[in-house]
Amino acid sequence: MTGDLTADDAAELLAEALAKRCSGDRPLLAGLNGAQGSGKSTLAAIVERQLAARGIRLAILSLDDFYLTHAERQELARTVHPLCATRGVPGTHDIG
Known about the structure:
- This protein has 96 residues and is mostly helical.
- Helices cover 41% and strands 0% of the residues.
- It has helices at 7-21, 40-53, 70-79.
- α1 packs across α2 (40-53).
- It is elongated and about 50 Å long.
- It starts with 6 loop residues before the first helix and ends in a 17-residue tail after the last helix.
């Protein structure tokens, strides 16, 4: 492969590597990290489609799925610390 790597190219390489590690008897946990807006969710969605096309079942979770609601963060900002109004600060996720 030459030139710039597209999201589709990267997803295909990642899907291929993950597919090789998948076995029917044990789940595989893979993590993806990067800066805000760097394309993590886009890449994950493409990989999900490519793995599903291979017959591999998967679930995608994002840290964004666990944020407290805006109202809950506003209450924390009022009662605990003003920084709790923003997403990502420790204590602003509904882990339970």
